[in-house]
Amino acid sequence: MTSTGIEIGELTWRAVARDLRRLVEQSEVIDSPSELQTYGYDASFYTQLNPHAPDLVVIAGSEKDVAAVIGYAYERGIPVTPRGAASGQTAAAVALQGGIVLSLNAMNRILELDVPNMQVFCEPGVIHAQLNSYLAPHNLIFPPDPGSTQMATVGGMASTNAHGMRAVKYGGTSAWVLGLRVVLPNGQIIETGSVGSRAKQSSAGLELTKLFVGAEGTLGVFTRLRLKLMPIPRAKAIVIGLFDILENAGLAVQAVFQQGITPSAIEILDERCIRAVNIYKPGIGLPEAEAMLLFEVDGNPAGVNADAELISKTIRPRARKVDWSADPERIQRLWEGRAVVGAAIGALRPGSNRAYCGEDICVPVARIPETLRAIQEISQRHDITIATYGHIGGGNLHPGHLIDARNPDEVERVLRVADEIHELALRVGGTTTGEHGVGYVRAMYMAREHGPALETMRAIKAALDPKGIMNPGKVLGTSNELPLLIQSGEEGLCPITQPSP
Ligand SMILES: Cc1cc2nc3c(=O)[nH]c(=O)nc-3n(C[C@H](O)[C@H](O)[C@H](O)COP(=O)(O)OP(=O)(O)OC[C@H]3O[C@@H](n4cnc5c(N)ncnc54)[C@H](O)[C@@H]3O)c2cc1C
């Protein structure tokens, strides 16, 4: 038995660390308890309350080492949790059942840019913003665009099928991954998307790339990604609509699509978000309203201007004020306002915490108006401040809950709020996660979301990972209970349900 309770037979973690140090050539093995603590968190509220340090960390330096570590762990049944930048909000990159955290962020080389074929080969630890800075002088872009661009690794993005602002036009990460090198749970290395291929499309065989993308590290570890690129659009414009009635913002989005326009982004900020941005960065000076919509259109200059005009005309009957601009500086300032909203929300209640839970629902576009109102009703009923923003063009909403995390009553209430928001999404025909993924915190909703298809997912997992070593307890877990936290005397907060096996 070990500190985290995993059976590793006669072995001790000290012996495992020694074995791994002998096995790897370019990687670092960490076993000092104080350093291990820092791997007990990601950006989820769950790990903020329940940090869980792994038994060992390996900072991977090469694919060969990754295969050696996983092969070793497979033989001994030791859990392995892959980790990128840990910006995920679902406890997915934390070893809740102990074992080894395999950190991929030091494998961060861009290996090759193939300009004529518009693709790039890179290691998983490349940071999203760095990739796009590298591509910009070649007039190329990797379009998925998460708010965590300065943190998230491309390996983590592929593993969560991250989306972001531009997904409404360009789709999620899965649309831009052409192939992967994957170390399977038994240590074998495979290449998906046709070995050695540089083709941009293929109908050859089962789409394994799509199976691994979004699997959140439960099926294997990516060691190289082949990513599709596109030219940077020649022009952009932005339309700003201010609304006095929240539902009208949702209706305006539908009306724009009905005009045959696909904006490259449609973002919403509710009244609380606008206020928060203005307190946090007064220089941005967003106009006050019950809701603000930002529509971005991209393409050729003449088309962009025509689309911006048509969007303005379409939303004007429902809006208090509409304005548009193709001025790059103004566009930049407005996106700055949108980019800081996640951090700014805390300014609404000094001393409070932003609780990342129930933060990523996605609902059908036609149900957006009632969903926005229902979130406000949940907020009032539980007396929890919620500021909502999100990628409304795809129906992806981010309710941001503000609480004092030292107050157990508020913690319990916000977890109930999160549960009700997840239930709301399912009730209106949506999903509990539009882009952040399932991890541990949403595993309990998967039976409801997928019905018998969940058993098919589990059968695939069992076929590839019969010993269940890869990121156990995540995505396909069996718990149907809310992992509520309660105050337990002097000991502080503790879970009343245990992580599922
Ligand atoms: C401020 C903020 C804004 C955000 N905005 C967005 C947004 O707009 N859109 C969006 O989609 N997400 C967003 N996120 C969530 C998060 O950034 C994404 O989920 C991101 O893709 C995670 O990348 P990461 O490198 O941090 O991965 P981690 O959090 O480290 O890991 C995420 C998952 O990927 C697995 N993993 C990591 N690397 C590998 C690998 N090489 N092989 C196999 N599995 C691997 C892990 O096991 C885990 O399951 C945001 C987060 C924050 C904090």
Descriptive notes:
- α9 (246-258) crosses α11 (301-315).
- Helices cover 33% and strands 20% of the residues.
- It has helices at 13-23, 33-37, 45-49, 63-76, 128-135, 154-160, 167-170, 208-212, 246-258, 271-280, 301-315, 328-339, 341-344, 368-382, 408-427, 446-450, 453-464; strands at 28-30, 56-59, 80-83, 100-103, 110-114, 119-122, 140-141, 177-183, 189-191, 221-228, 230-231, 235-243, 265-270, 291-299, 321-325, 353-355, 361-362, 385-391, 396-403, 485-487, 493-495.
- β18 (385-391) and β19 form a beta hairpin.
- The chain contains 17 helices and 21 strands.
- It has 501 residues and is an alpha+beta fold.
- The structure holds flavin-adenine dinucleotide.
- Flavin-adenine dinucleotide binds next to β3, α6 and β10.
Question: How is the secondary structure organized here?
Answer:
Blueprint lengths: L12 H11 L4 E3 L2 H5 L7 H5 L6 E4 L3 H14 L3 E4 L16 E4 L6 E5 L4 E4 L5 H8 L4 E2 L12 H7 L6 H4 L6 E7 L5 E3 L16 H5 L8 E8 L1 E2 L3 E9 L2 H13 L6 E6 H10 L10 E9 L1 H15 L5 E5 L2 H12 L1 H4 L8 E3 L5 E2 L5 H15 L2 E7 L4 E8 L4 H20 L18 H5 L2 H12 L20 E3 L5 E3 L6
Parallel strand pairs: 2-4, 3-4
Antiparallel strand pairs: 1-2, 5-6, 6-10, 7-11, 8-9, 8-10, 12-14, 12-15, 13-14, 13-18, 16-19, 17-19, 18-19, 20-21
Helix pairs in contact: 9-11, 9-14, 14-15
